[in-house]
Design the sequence.
């Protein structure tokens, strides 16, 4: 299984979960581009591709599938104001980000993904996908994390509506099998899994990052990400002390791209995305 050029993209057992190099100006034959666009589902644009011989700063390895192989990563990449409720904050944040500020879109339980939202996907070597617009910053973050001696990988990236539903169904079944009633199982599952259509993973600009425990501990990776991800435009989306606002429990592995300026401001102020956009 291929791993990212300074990232490790193998899958781990838990649902937890990378890149600054120049973006390749890949020339895609017109016919192939049309075919890709025709095959792309609704709000998903054709996947980014690079020629077989392109190797972006050690990120990609040649692929034998042909001249227009889909991008593959190289395995060597080893307080809310007292008078403002969370509901009011979410309502205010609803349309704060302009259309050109795709990286500041708010998606949560009360703000589903807009029907016209566009994703420009890039497929990773282990089958995971991310929006190509976050790729350079993701790569830079992983490069520096590995330079600091950490072993980490992308556990999850973009998900389709169907994939998100399957995860939800699986979690509900898990609780049912543990002896919970149907109602209890659904309630518990929704504490861990976003409802389809409200998951940041469906945006393609959020990733779950895990530690490769053969080389790093979970704590070491999560601590580094918490202290450094903002420098690359990523935020820990669901902090432990913001659960009453985000509606999601602490997820030290889930990082969302919001741009370097917003990430810096949120880091310095201690705000979560809902607070920042309100």
Sequence:
């Amino acid at each position: 299984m291929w791993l990212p050029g300074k990232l490790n993209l193998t899958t781990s057992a838990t649902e937890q979960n990378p890149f600054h190099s120049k973006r390749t100006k890949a020339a895609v034959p017109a016919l192939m581009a049309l075919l890709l666009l025709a095959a792309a589902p609704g709000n998903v644009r054709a996947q980014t591709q690079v020629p077989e011989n392109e190797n972006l700063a050690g990120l990609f390895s040649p692929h034998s599938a042909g001249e227009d192989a889909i991008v593959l990563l190289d395995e060597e990449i080893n307080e809310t104001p007292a008078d403002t409720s969370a509901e009011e904050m979410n309502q205010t944040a609803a349309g704060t980000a302009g259309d050109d500020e795709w990286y500041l879109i708010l998606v949560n339980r009360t703000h589903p993904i807009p029907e016209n939202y566009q994703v420009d996907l890039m497929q990773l070597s282990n089958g995971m996908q991310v929006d190509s617009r976050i790729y350079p910053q993701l790569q830079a973050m992983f490069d520096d994390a590995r330079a600091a001696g950490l072993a980490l990988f992308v556990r999850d990236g973009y998900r389709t509506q169907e994939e998100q539903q399957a995860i939800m169904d699986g979690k509900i079944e898990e609780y049912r099998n543990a002896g919970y009633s149907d109602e209890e199982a659904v309630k518990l599952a929704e504490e861990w899994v976003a409802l389809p259509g409200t998951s940041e993973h469906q945006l393609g600009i959020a990733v779950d990052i895990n530690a490769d425990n053969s080389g790093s501990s979970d704590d070491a990776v999560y601590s580094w990400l918490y202290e450094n991800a903002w420098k690359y435009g990523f935020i820990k989306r669901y902090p432990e002390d913001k659960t009453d606002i985000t509606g999601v429990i602490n997820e030290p592995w889930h990082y969302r791209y919001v741009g370097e300026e917003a990430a810096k401001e949120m880091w310095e102020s201690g705000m979560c995305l809902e607070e920042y956009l309100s």
Summary: Residues 1-42, 45-97 have pLDDT under 50 and may be disordered. The chain has one domain: 30-159+199-277.
